[in-house]
């Protein structure tokens, strides 16, 4: 009971059936949308500007929308994890608040990274295969874009790893969901971050796949379990 003139404690919102459904749906849909670009386009040959332009030109109809879908996937993850974090308790909620800031930065950088992929490369590819007036100059410009993409790529990957890891840490501190889910998220995020720091996609890829699996399982658990009833006093 609270009285006038005394401080009140703000309780986190509960995981209601409605919030469970949309948080879980966002996690699962975000994962599906993240997998889609890899399944549709594979890995472009970024070591050669000319090969990259031909690769993009062959996929001109789907290149831009598929990459925008990938941005939407990370945004769905960020929003869903932030909403879940708001419903954690005690120290877990404090960690999740830090995760929300990290998620905002990660989503912004990832959006810039994939926007360059989505917008710049198809325009250059259309000019190149359409017979650009100065193909050598165009290839030089594309080489510069690829350098920027390479630098931005690993920064974006590192930040997404941090976003996942921080939310995994938050889940290890809350007792309303299985602690092992938090541990798996923390490992996946740290592995993703480590791969980005050492600039090695061979390390990033398995931890990305682990994150996909983690997000789907977390979504299923949230959907089915939610918050337990308050303990009796």
What is the fold's blueprint, element by element?
Layout lengths: L16 H25 L7 H9 L2 H27 L4 H39 L5 H38 L6 H19 L3 H24 L9
Helix pairs in contact: 1-3, 1-7, 2-4, 3-4, 3-5, 4-5, 5-6, 6-7
How would you characterize this protein structure?
There is one protein chain. 39% of the residues are buried. Residues 1-9 and 227-233 have low confidence and may be disordered. Helix 3 (60-86) runs parallel beside helix 5 (135-172) and helix 6 runs antiparallel to helix 7. By secondary structure, the protein is mainly alpha-helical. 78% of the residues lie in helices and 0% in strands.
Individual helix count: 7
| Biggest sheet character | none
Write down the Rg: 21 Å
Ends: how far apart? 14 Å
Helix content percent band: over 70%
Shape: elongated
Order of helices and strands: HHHHHHH
Unreliably modeled segments: 1-9, 227-233
Overall mean pLDDT: 87
Task: Tell me the total number of β-strands.
Answer: 0
Which range does the strand content fall in?
A: under 5%
Structure summarized in a few sentences:
The chain is mainly α and 233 residues long.
Keywords:
elongated; mainly alpha; disordered C terminus; 7 helices; single chain; 233 residues
């Amino acid at each position: 009971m609270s009285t006038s003139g005394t401080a009140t404690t703000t309780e986190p919102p509960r995981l209601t059936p409605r919030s469970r459904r949309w948080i879980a749906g966002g996690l699962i849909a975000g994962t599906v949308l993240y997998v889609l670009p890899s399944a549709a386009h594979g890995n472009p040959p970024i070591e050669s500007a000319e090969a990259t332009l031909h690769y993009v030109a062959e996929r001109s109809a789907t290149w831009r929308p598929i990459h925008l879908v990938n941005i939407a996937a990370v945004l769905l993850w960020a929003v869903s994890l932030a909403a879940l974090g708001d419903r954690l308790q005690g120290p877990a909620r404090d960690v999740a608040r830090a995760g929300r800031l990290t998620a905002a930065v990660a989503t912004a950088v990832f959006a810039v990274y994939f926007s360059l992929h989505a917008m710049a490369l198809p325009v250059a590819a259309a000019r190149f295969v359409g017979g650009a007036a100065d193909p050598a100059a165009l290839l030089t410009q594309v080489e510069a874009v690829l350098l920027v993409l390479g630098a931005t790529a690993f920064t974006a990957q590192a930040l997404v790893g941090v976003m996942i890891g921080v939310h995994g840490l938050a889940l290890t501190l809350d007792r309303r969901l299985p602690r092992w889910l938090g541990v798996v998220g923390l490992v996946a995020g740290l592995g993703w971050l480590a791969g980005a720091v050492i600039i090695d996609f061979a390390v990033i890829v398995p931890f990305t796949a682990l994150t996909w699996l983690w997000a789907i399982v977390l979504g299923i658990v949230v959907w089915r379990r939610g918050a337990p009833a308050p303990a009796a006093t």
